[in-house]
Every structure is written in C-alpha cells, then in structure tokens.
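Title: Comparing notes on inverse folding

I've been comparing how different people in this forum approach sequence design from structure. To keep things fair, I'm posting one structure and asking everyone to reply with a full sequence. Here's the target:
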C-alpha cells in the first residue's frame, strides 16, 4: 500500500473503535499538562486518550468541498509516546494502513 507523503493527509493510525486504544503513560499525562483531564481518562489503573466518532478525540478533521480532508492532531508536540513511536512508513504504519485505510477512505474520501 502506498505510504502517504504527509500524515496530515492520512490520520489512519488515530482511528480505532476501542476506547482503550491510545495508552497514556504517567509521563504522557504530565506532558499533556492542563489538557490531560479533557483529552484523556482513566480506565482501571491505566489512562487512555478519549475517543470520539471512532478516532482519538485530539484528531481534528477538516473537510473543504473540492479539497482532500486534513487530519490534524491538536496535541502533536505533546502527543503520547505510542504516537511518537509510530513513524510514517514504518511496519506499524503500514499495518495500520492495511487494516483501516479503507474505512477512513469510505468515511472521509481520502
Ligand atoms: S503514521 Fe502512517 S498511518 Fe499514521 S497518519 Fe502517518 S501515514 Fe497515516
Ligand atoms: S494524540 Fe494525536 S497522534 Fe496520537 S492518536 Fe491522538 S490525534 Fe493521533
């Protein structure tokens, strides 16, 4: 599968149906600062990013008629470590694209 040139054109790895998809460590929580309670929550003894409409709540999707959608992480510089570890073009990225790109494409026409 073709790797997008820019994650802003893709956003696929930020999508999941599970509410415990993006793990937030204690260090991540501290880095999120005042936004932590708003964007993350605890389930049992572990924190995770809150999910909205099948994707991480920090992912903002802008759709403009006649232009491709833009997938923007509002917390990019403070995103959790699991997000930092998932590099564009890596095996993990390619697995995400294989598993979910069709669903995102169907919904957002990317
Ligand atoms: S890391 Fe890969 S799957 Fe995630 S947004 Fe970037 S190109 Fe898409
Ligand atoms: S924090 Fe940002 S990079 Fe990580 S899943 Fe959420 S929107 Fe994607």
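Reply #1:
Here's my take.
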């Amino acid at each position: 599968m073709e790797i997008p040139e820019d994650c802003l054109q893709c956003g696929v790895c930020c999508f999941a149906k599970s509410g415990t998809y993006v793990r937030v460590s204690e260090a991540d929580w501290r880095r999120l600062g005042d936004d932590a309670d708003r964007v993350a929550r605890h389930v049992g003894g572990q924190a995770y990013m809150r999910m909205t409409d099948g994707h991480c709540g920090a992912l903002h999707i802008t759709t403009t008629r006649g232009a491709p959608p833009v997938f923007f992480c509002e917390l990019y510089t403070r995103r959790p470590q699991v997000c930092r570890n998932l590099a564009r073009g890596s095996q993990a990225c390619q697995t995400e694209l294989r598993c979910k790109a069709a669903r995102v494409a169907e919904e957002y026409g990317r």
